[in-house]
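Weekly modeling sync, notes
Attendees: S.R. (lead), two postdocs, one rotation student

Agenda item 3: backlog of single-chain predictions. S.R. asked that every request posted to the team notebook include the full sequence so nobody has to chase files. The rotation student volunteered to paste the first one in as an example of the format we agreed on. Action items at the bottom.

Example entry:
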Amino acid sequence: MFESYDQDIGMLTNKISKKLIYYVNSNLEKFNLTTEQWVVLLNLSKQNKISQKLLAKLSGKDQSTLTRILDILERKNFIERHPSKEDRRSFEIHITETGLNITEQVIPFLDELFNNLLEDISYEKLKIYNEVLLKIDNNINKLQ
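Predicted structure, as returned to the notebook:
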């Protein structure tokens, strides 16, 4: 069935992932966001006023990458950093009104975009696809 798992699964997954990120990024430009920034902003919209450490974990980012993203989001007035009351060495990250407004615009936009991307793919196939991706992720975590 498959010539090679590396070529047929690994390379195809990588190719589609890059293509998807490029496509979503090009569509997010109108909101002055990238996919990397969007992940952070979306997590903050769901759980505001959290530590940078927790935000990094929720967003799947290392600390240095998250710091760069937060610098950009702060310049765009989407977030603010406030010194933590518990630990003066750390900051709580707050989403601003501007950040909330942009989030409220991006969520339905991306829903529509993904509805178009997933056109003619049944719910059952998408469920299987999601289960397979989660299983691969779990296997990677076990191997690390």
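Discussion: group reviewed the output briefly. Helices lie at 5-28, 35-46, 52-59, 63-75, 97-117, 123-143.
Action items: rotation student to repeat for the remaining queue; S.R. to check formatting next week.
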